[in-house]
Fold:
Amino acid sequence: MDDNSNLTISTLFNNSDEKKIENFEKRTKSDLVVDLHFDKVEANFDWLDIMEDTIKYLFNILKNPNRFIINEDEIVKIEKARRVTVDSIKHLARHTNYISKIEDNGDVKPTKILNINKEESYDTYENRFIYTLISNMEIFISFKEKDLDSSSYLKDDKSIQYKAATMVGNEHITLDLSMKTSLHNRKNDGMKDGDNLRTRIDKLKQDIIVLKNTEVYKDLARKHVALIRPPLKKTNLILKNTNFQYAVALWNYLQEHSNDENKREKNDKNYSDDSELKGFFDETFLLDYLALCTLNKEEYKRDKTKERVVNQVIQKIIDLNSSLTEDEIKDMVGEQYKVVKYKNNATDEGISQIYRKHIDKYMNKINNIKL
Structure:
């Protein structure tokens, strides 16, 4: 449909009785009830990213673990001695009571001797740090899994009930309006490289099982070593080794975010509105009424149709040459008027009669259109 044929709001007001509008607004009584339901959750899965990024460095640490040698001293019968060392001879020299006999050739026959067992141990501070970190990871994952279904989402539902009534003279006007909007949006949180959140967590838990099956971890678990407590000691190895630097970053993150929960904003409200919003709907009530009045306002149709026809003609002239001035348009219309007048050898009265005849015919045709 041509834009010029559209019924505009300004046209409605300009061609309506001001007293009728004033009377309408003065006698309007309305009520607006608003119902709001807002629920927004923002889930954070940074913890999963940093664990996935760090797991390979934990593998590196447990593959080449820090260790130290433990010497266990034990006094045993000579026949049970596994190895006689210099330290064993020194000890026997200081404890001659363990010597039962000295041969003529100088051989010493002890009854007991010091036995020194050398054993590698993984029970270092750095290894206990990794052992504790793995335990903390399991606890953190378990905590997050309880809230796993609460991915990020937004629910924003709004509805209004508007009722209004007024009088214009003896005419009674009412409006009963109900409107609802609903916005529901759920994010596919936790997706990465084609894996959904559940798959990523399952993979991470499997990696942790592999870590726990390493020789270092099983040895520390058998010994029930004590977990380390914050603050973390910055040993030389922890400070300078790249693998440990990533482990420390994860340790700090878990310490700082141990009690993190999804951020949630929720608001439910139901109330009668008497603010600017109700004023908007009151104006809409008036606008709807004015639009309805055009159904049987014949004067409006006839006058405005003529005006629209003229506007269309002028608009087409301008479209053909937008650089035309107002005086040039007037001159052009005047020249064409003269051409038509003299070409048909007609008088002004004759032209007027022809014009009225065609306009009346056109208006009759429009009046016969059923709405």
